[in-house]
Design goal:
mainly alpha, Serine Threonine Protein Phosphatase 5, Tetratricopeptide repeat
């Protein structure tokens, strides 16, 4: 029995020792697990911090790229705007160059034409045989033509700037110097335009009429008669309007012009309106007669600008150009 008791006590001590060992191992395992968990958490925190830093760096780079793209797009828009502006400037400069070339060609044609006429002239002295003009005379004629051309171009520039009084004086000087030829005809035409824009329609009609009489086959005769018809229409003078429209239709020089077709259409409309107009009924005696409608203004242009009047430059009747 004694041995049995000792064995039981030994077993009990062994069990208690095992229990303590188990508890120690459990505590050690828990400590190890805590350490492992802490290490894992620290690793996760470090990894998250690195990822966050990398994300911030990527965002910064993306923002930088976006700013660069925006700057590039803005620069591209500016470049397109500059290219468009340069293209417009080139187009305007090209048009100006074309106009200058046309003007130069026009002047050369006129100079050549005048030179041919001057060379073809003969001087007859006291019934002697016709002799060619001297070089001095030719030079004087050429200088006169060049001077008149310069005055005409200056006057036309004054007209386009709205200086109608100054332009009128220039055109009048050209006409008094040349009288005949294209410069004489053109100077009369532009004189009339200056008068219209200066609100002096009556004087403009006289100049237009003189031009049509002096240059019946000139370059401006169709436009001149069409403008006269328009002026009389504005004044309500239908008879004179029809008269000038009919002159355009009867003129061989106007048969291929744009004014010919317009004159035919307008004249046809006038005749149709006159044939279709019903006769006026007699008004009752006890009712006052209706007032006649006010005639439209005879001035094609608006109120002339201040200082543009030509009153200080008296308009003399243009001298009818001698026959060509």
């Amino acid at each position: 029995m004694k041995k049995l008791a000792i064995g039981i006590v030994s077993i009990a001590f062994a069990l208690v020792g095992c229990s303590k060992i188990t508890m120690l191992r459990t505590e050690e395992m828990q400590a190890v697990g805590a350490d492992v968990k802490g290490n894992i958490q620290m690793g996760l925190d470090s990894t998250m911090a690195k990822l966050s830093a990398q994300n911030d760096s990527l965002r910064s780079e993306l923002d930088s790229l976006k700013a660069q793209l925006d700057a590039s797009a803005l620069a591209q828009k500016r470049m397109m705007a500059e290219v468009t502006m340069l293209s417009r400037r080139m187009g305007d400069e090209s048009e100006r160059n074309d106009s200058r070339q046309e003007e130069i060609i026009y002047r050369l044609d006129m100079l050549l034409g005048k030179s041919d006429k001057i060379l073809a002239k003969k001087v007859v002295v006291s019934g002697a045989p016709a002799a060619p003009m001297s070089m001095d005379s030719l030079e004087r004629e050429a200088e006169k033509l060049v001077e008149a051309e310069a005055m005409f171009n200056t006057a036309r520039s004054d007209y386009h700037r709205g200086e109608y009084k100054l332009a009128y004086a220039g055109f009048k000087q050209v006409y008094e110097q040349m009288k005949v030829g294209e410069l004489g005809e053109n100077s009369l035409y532009w004189m009339a335009l200056c008068l219209i824009d200066a609100n002096q329609v009556e004087k403009a009609k006289k100049v237009f009429t003189s031009l049509a009489d002096a240059f019946p086959e000139g370059q401006k005769v169709c436009t001149t008669m069409f403008k006269l018809a328009a002026i009389y229409r504005a004044e309500g003078n239908v008879d004179m309007q029809k008269q000038y429209l009919q002159k355009i239709l009867n003129s061989k020089a106007c048969s291929t012009s744009g004014e010919f077709e317009q004159a035919a259409e307008i004249l046809q409309e006038i005749l149709e309106s006159e044939t279709q107009a019903p006769p006026k009924a007699a008004e009752p005696a006890n009712e006052p007669a209706a007032s006649a409608p006010e005639a439209p203004s005879a001035t094609p242009a608006a109120e002339a600008p201040a200082g543009a009047g030509l009153e200080s430059t008296p308009v003399s009747e243009p001298v009818t150009a001698p026959a060509k």
